[in-house]
């Protein structure tokens, strides 16, 4: 059964600019403008040039209001990865993030993927809670931060991250 979310569609390369603008606008309470700009650098155009078919956009009234950039592993035919998700603050708390993830899980499972992975900062306690609520398990790490396992220097020095794993397409 495919998740129905009015306005949900496959991403396109042309969505890159609006998605980056959304990242810079949607995180003002959590990040300084400079930090939000740096955060947007995690979404180079290549993600939509080469993974638009596995990424999703929620468009309403001609504007992108949410997105999920995901990809299927080229090296492991059973894995998929959720790279970045954003939801306009005006839509938060309405199940949009859950619907994006569910649609990605369904599409990944239909493509033969059996596992979805994701990472987040241990400081982002809301994201950690969301991933757990979506059925992700925290992978063991080498130390604990805020009561959750992290993998030290996962993305380079000082970039400790919480790593998640979730089974799709036939079980949790």
Kindly describe this structure.
The chain is α+β, with helices and mostly antiparallel strands. It folds into 2 domains: 1-69 and 85-113, Gcn5-related N-acetyltransferase (GNAT) (Aminopeptidase, 3-Layer(aba) Sandwich), CATH 3.40.630.30; 114-172, Gcn5-related N-acetyltransferase (GNAT) (Aminopeptidase, 3-Layer(aba) Sandwich). Helices cover 28% and strands 27% of the residues. It is built from 5 helices and 9 strands; from the N terminus they run E-H-H-H-E-E-E-H-E-H-E-E-E-E. The strands form 2 sheets. It has a 7-stranded mixed β-sheet with strand order 1-2-3-4-5-9-6. The chain has a two-stranded antiparallel sheet with strand order 7-8. The protein is globular.
Q: Cα-atom Rg, whole angstroms?
A: 16 Å
Helicity range = 25-40%
The total count of helices amounts to 5
What's the count of strands?
Answer: 9
H and E string: EHHHEEEHEHEEEE
Q: CATH class of the largest domain, please?
A: Alpha Beta
Number of domains: 2
What portion of residues belong to β-strands?
25-35%
User: Which structural class fits the helix and strand makeup?
Assistant: alpha+beta
Poorly predicted regions: none
Q: Which homologous superfamily in CATH is the superfamily of the largest domain?
A: Gcn5-related N-acetyltransferase (GNAT)
Mean pLDDT: 93
Q: Order of strands across the biggest sheet?
A: 1-2-3-4-5-9-6
**What would you say the CATH architecture of the largest domain is?**
3-Layer(aba) Sandwich
């Amino acid at each position: 059964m495919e998740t129905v979310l009015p306005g949900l569609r496959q991403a396109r390369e042309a969505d890159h600019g609006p998605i980056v603008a959304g990242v810079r606008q949607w995180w003002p309470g959590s990040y300084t403008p400079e930090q939000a700009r740096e955060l947007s650098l995690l979404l180079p155009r290549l993600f939509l040039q080469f993974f638009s078919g596995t990424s999703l956009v929620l468009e309403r009234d001609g504007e992108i209001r949410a997105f999920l950039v995901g990809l299927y592993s080229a090296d492991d035919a059973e894995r998929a990865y959720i790279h970045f998700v954003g939801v306009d603050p005006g839509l938060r708390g309405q199940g949009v993030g859950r619907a994006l993830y569910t649609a990605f899980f369904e599409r990944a499972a239909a493509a033969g993927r059996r596992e979805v992975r994701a990472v987040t900062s241990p400081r982002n306690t809301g994201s950690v809670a969301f991933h757990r609520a979506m059925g992700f398990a925290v992978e063991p790490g080498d130390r604990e931060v805020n009561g959750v396992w992290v993998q030290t220097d996962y993305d380079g020095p000082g970039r400790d991250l919480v790593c998640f794993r979730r089974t799709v397409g036939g079980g949790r």
